[in-house]
Structures are given as C-alpha cells and as structure tokens.
Write a structure and sequence with these properties.
This protein is an alpha/beta fold. It is built from 12 helices and 21 strands. The model is unreliable at about 1-35 (pLDDT under 50).
Length: about 500
Amino acid sequence: MSSMTLLTKKLAKLLKFLFAVCLLSASSLVMAQDDALDNAYWSGSDPYLRWPLPPGAEQYGRIDGRQMYDWVVEQAEISRRYRDQGNQFWGRIIGTSSDAESADWLVDRFNEIGLSNVYIQPLDLLPQWLPQSWEVTVSTGAQTRKLESAQPFYASVGTGSDGIELDVVYVGLGSEADFEGKDVRGKAVFAYTMLGLPSMNARRHAGERGAAAVFEVEMLPGNMKFQGYPSGVDVPAFTLGSEDGFAVRDMTVGAGLNPPKVTVKMDVERVPNLQTALVWGSLPGATDETIYIMAHRDGWFDASGDNASGVASMLALAQYYAAIPQAERQRTLIFIGLDGHHNTGEGSTVGGRWLADNREELFDKTALVINAEHPSTVQTQVRARYLREGGEPKDEISWANTYMPQQWYAGGNSRPNLEAIAVNAFREFGVSILLEPNDVPPAGDLGRVYRFTPGVATSEFFHYFHTDMETPETVPWTGLEASTRAYARIIDRVNELELGDLQRPEEQL
C-alpha cells in the first residue's frame, strides 16, 4: 500500500472523528443521532428522504423546508437566551421576556415577508406560575446523588426556603397493587411510567394515601427533563429521567428500615401583572372572505417541534402567498401567532378564548382555518432489545431517515369534501398520516374554534415531546416542507369551493 493511500485513509479517519466531535458539541441529542450521522452512508450528505414534487405542482417548490428549518433554529435560540439569563424554568414561556421576544421576532418576519396590518395585540394574564429555582437530591448512608433531571409538574406547589426531607418509597408502576401494603403517608413516592402503558393513576393513588411528594419517572432511554402538565396532587411533584429514576430505585434495594432520603427545595411564585400577545398579519385577497393560518408561539425548553415548527410552517405559507398578486388570491389570508396553551389551568389560553368569544366578527366569512401544530417530527423508536453491542442491550432511541405519521382532522364528518381535499393533498406531497381522522382536532389550539369554523390540523407527539431534547435536530426539514406544501394545496383547493360548501351551523357538526 502506498504512503499516499495510507495518508488518505488516516486523513479520512481524522475528518470523521472531527465531524463526530462537532456533532457532540453542537447538540445534546447525540445518543442516537451520532450513530446515524457518523455512519458512512450519511457522512457529508443529508439523510432525510425528500418527497418529489408531483407533475403540475411545480409552483409549490417555492416552499423551502431548509428555510423553515432556519426559522425553527431562530426560535430555539430565543428559548436558550432566556435560559442563559439564569432561568431554570425555561423556554418561550408565556408572560416572560422570551414570550415578548418571540412576538417581536414574529413581527419582524411578517414585515420582511410583506404582510399587511402587522401588529401585536396585548393580552392580560392572571398571575402566572413561575418556579424560581429547585434542587432535588437523594442519599443513603453510602452515597448522595443530585437528581439533575428533576422537573416540576406545571403548577406544582413549592416547599418553602427550608425544603423538605422525606423517606423514599418505590411503588413500581404505581397501580393499586403496587401500593398494596406500603405506607406512603408523609413520604416521597417514586412511580414509573412509559409510552404505550395505560395510566396506572400513580399520582392520584399517592395523593389519596397521604404522600408528601411525588416523582414520576419517564422510562425513556437517557436522562431527559420532561415538562408535565399539572400533577393533580397538592404536594411537590416532579418528573424524572430514567437514569435518575433507576438510580433511586436501586438505592431502595436492601434498604429495609433505613430507606433513602430525598431532599427537595423549590421556590415557586405566582407572578401578577404579566402580559402575552397575539401577533397578527394579513394578505388582502380578491374578496373579504377569509382563510386563517395560526400557530402557537410558546413552548417548553427549545420547543422546536412544539411549536417552532408550526410557526415556521405558518411563515412559509405567508411567504408563498405574498408572492402571488392580490387579484389571484381568492380570499384574504390572516395569520396569527397565538400566545399558546402551555400555561394550563385557570386563566390560560387567553388568546384562544378571545378568538372564540369574538367568533361572530372574526369567522363570519371564513372558509378555512389551518392550525400548524408540530407538523414535522423525526421518526424515532426505542432500539429493539435483541440488538446488542458488546453483549449488552443497546436500548437508546434510534432515528429513521424520515418523519413521523401524524394525527389529523379535516372538518369532521359533516365536511367530506374538506376531508377528501386534505387526504389527497397529504398523499400528493408525501405527508404520512394515520389511516383514520380524529373525531375532533388533535390536542392544540384548533380545539377552541373548530366547532364554528372549517378547520384542518395535523400533529404528532413523539419521544422527545416536551423534553429538553426537543431541539431543532428533531425537526426534519423534509417534513416541514411536505406538510406546508400540503397545507398550501388544501388552501388552493378550498378556494375553488363556495363558502356554503364549507360552513356549517355549530349544532350540525
């Protein structure tokens, strides 16, 4: 073998090593992605399958998934700036400076695209739950572990400045059988859950039996932070990543009369006098009939799939139709960056409530509402147990070279014409969907207005949903492109129908 060949091979190995190092430093999502992107098949190329434009649909080629991906990254950066200001509870959080920055950012994008009547509509909020800081450690006589993945359930009560120290009780999956014979009163309950299992109501069982704190371990590979909605118990409640959760479980083995102790400190405030906003923009059409495209701006952590991806899709539709002359836009297009819905409970979803309260004025001549709600998420699965490396199970989350199928809703049973338009558009542009539509829209903001507007929504919820690993890398640009092109086709097909073909009295839905 020549010295030149050896040098070339060594250089290739070095470049491959440096490429992997760059990936490791660029993202925390490396436990599965490094295996895929470091593979020789993908090195220096894009792994994702891209659906080709069908004949006669060349105009939709202006909708560019790569540009949409850049908008996802920019929104994630807003979240990270808020985190880096010292906020342990972070993301594009309603009522905070990251919410205001998100609104300003969207106004700038609307203006760059050339929308008309761009403005921010402020909305007053009830006092908002905002945890200021928290720390959770568990200890035995031999060891102490800080539970880095501990994340408070939304609206969880705090502990006061002194914190609490409690005995640990392990209850498995937290069913009634798991609680049988265990005294949890005044103690910290650790229960375990995973995707695909029915709810065992562990938190409710713990609350009814007098537990003083509740921890729910999300059994996904790794140690993700997961933000959950309200726990339903009036004691400090946290989610945990699986590595932390299993470490606590193992500490209980053989503990007998000396169980591990967990120490919890959490400072929570209800902050008054905050505001959020709706962000508006429009493209006048040939008539005063309307089509609305909306997407919520808020989200936990990077919130790249939920819902930077939806905002990016809305922007791409605005950009696409802004390039079409007004006389050729059959209906006026109205774009709304919604405040969102992650501040769950009393006083939440104020933007959606405002839209519903003003429905007669807003939607009297509306032919369609599209809610862009996480329209692209990477296809993931937990690697099968029988695949082993070095004799040990390799159980990380593995990625596919495509995006997930989505739940969908397109007007319901009373609008078969809209369902047919949507299904054909999804098929035409390669949007994977479930075989049957939802009876009502997938969880999201269309749920506020679908009863009195013709609506379309698609979305999916995957392994990284609501976690600190829901970074931009989990949003394939090809899925953004496919979904948004399908939305544009749906708009164009709807514009071929009369308003009466789509609108229904609320009682007939």
